Amino acid sequence: MVRDITLGQFLPGDSLMHRLDPRAKLGLTLSVIVFIFVAGNFLGLAVMTGLVFLGMAVSGVSIGRYLKSLKVVLLVVLFTSLLNLFYGGGEVLWEWGFLRITWGGVSNSIFVAVRIIVLIFASSVLTFTTSPTQLTDALERLMKPLSLIRVPVHEIAMMMTIALRFIPTLLEETDKIMNAQKARGADMESGGILKRVKALVPVLVPLFVSSFRRAYELATAMECRCYRGGKGRTKMKILHMKARDYISCGVAAAAGAGVILLRIFITHPYL
Amino acid sequence: MEYLQTQELTYSYHKEPPLTLALDGVTLGIGKGEFVALLGHNGCGKSTLAKQFNALILPSGGTVFVDSMDTKDQSLTFEIRRQVGLVQQNPDNQLVASVVEEDVAFGPENIGVPPGEIREQVDAALKAVGMYEYRTHAPHKLSGGQKQRVAIAGILAMQPACIVLDEPTAMLDPRGRREVLETVWKLNREKGITVVLITHYMEEAAQADRVVVMDRGKVLLDGTPRQVFSQVDLLKEHALDVPQATELMALLRREGCEVPNDVLTAEECTKVLEGLLGGTQTG
């Protein structure tokens, strides 16, 4: 059961979005997120929404999957838009005691809701179409300039790679230890929260001990394979930016420019 | 001097007295292309010896030479590790990346091989261990034997002259054990890679060119499997097993049957027994 877990939400595929360079994808997603916040009015937000929808369309992932990714944040969306409903000025629509709903509030609340939903969609496009390995690789390369100011970029990437590698192994081990403790009569399912947390101690202790043993053995194995840090290291897979990567960056840049222009020139309160 | 050569090698895990010696004056030479099985019960120093061969630990006394390079010379450590690969017991704790081919590429990447060549070496290594079809799989979804073969491929991709395997089959089921051993044999025969196999399984050791038995940090016996396993009493004295066939012959001899003392495999054993039973029937 634990063996079948997949990390993150990666859905293997061969769409245009899957084939984009992970660096380009990471950069695009980050800038899209920034521009969603830059967008100060509905028109700007519409441009970004259009761009994100375009990305979703070429990702080859069904719309149902995207909607499912909203489920986790549904409460946040409802809560923030409900709060926003009572802020803002303009024509009063409804009043009861100190609660007052205005046109400004309605428009604010819709704006915020759309913004959060589009944000989630944008990051889902990235996580659905990029494997964790590709993501780590992209991060390492994008952060490379930081090594000039002594940020241990290679080490950070190495830690992420090893973490990704060992998450399933440790989950499997947790499962085994829990079963072993249950076989000895440990009760992990009943009682209040405090009792259950306490019941986890006999699981966590052996897990920690074995993790340290694993770390030691892994370090030995890495030394055996001539590991000596990032110095003098090469890479089997080299990323190449292709035409499609430049084109998609261009499209995103155009959308970003549009958002800025709209923010400057459109000042109508409800647009 | 042999390819792997130790001279009066001593080693202690403690820095201060009382010094318990894990290795106590080991002088051993292993030639290029040999398949040597290293036997001994727990704590006899065989794993310690394995770690000496690729400079993971350095001698407390005496010397270790790998292809005439002294392991104490730290400027040579990198080259020594490139030549002598070590495969450990638990395959789970040897794999670094979450994709098989990227894990195999880890060694060549560390050495600094150009990207195009890494690809070739990785593909060749995966084909040599029969795991090429699994190159894009995640290691945690493979069986134990498959994982261990990937670990061997990871060493093989560095194109070493020698592979030291420290109980590579101890955590595997019989099928995984067979897979791994067949792979190791193939590498020795087809690529001429020197193999030092540390094992608890006497049947595995019986197939080697040479068997070295260790006890309390010393070499107890050293010779062909037939020479070594014929000394049943000496081995039993040191709490070591012999292959089942050999043991059966020893028991029969004790009962007064005239059977040879250097029988190793089940096939040889059947032949001897057939001869014995056939003889009693007609006589």
Task: Please explain how this structure is put together.
The complex is a heterodimer of chains A (271) and B (283). Chain A has helices at residues 16-19, 22-38, 42-57, 63-70, 74-85, 103-129, 132-143, 153-183, 193-224, 243-265, and strands at 92-96, 99-102. With 271 residues, chain A is mainly alpha-helical. Chain A folds into two domains: 12-130 and 240-265, no CATH class; 152-224, no CATH class. In chain A, a hairpin with a 2-residue loop joins strand 1 (92-96) and strand 2 (99-102). The longest helix of chain A is centred in the last third of the chain and has 32 residues, at 193-224. The radius of gyration of chain A is 24 Å and the shape is flat. Chain A starts with 15 loop residues before the first helix and ends in a 6-residue tail after the last helix. The model of chain A is unreliable at 1-6 (pLDDT under 50). Helices cover 41% and strands 20% of the residues of chain B. Chain B starts with a strand and ends with a helix. Chain B is globular, with a radius of gyration of 21 Å. By secondary structure, chain B is α/β, with parallel strands linked by helices. Chain B has a domain at 243-283. Chain B contains twelve helices and ten strands. The model of chain B has no long low-confidence stretch (mean pLDDT 90). Chain B has helices at 46-53, 77-83, 100-104, 106-111, 115-128, 144-156, 174-191, 202-206, 225-229, 232-237, 244-254, 266-282; strands at 4-12, 21-30, 35-39, 61-66, 69-70, 84-87, 162-166, 194-198, 210-215, 218-223. Classes of the chains: A mainly alpha (271), B alpha/beta (283).
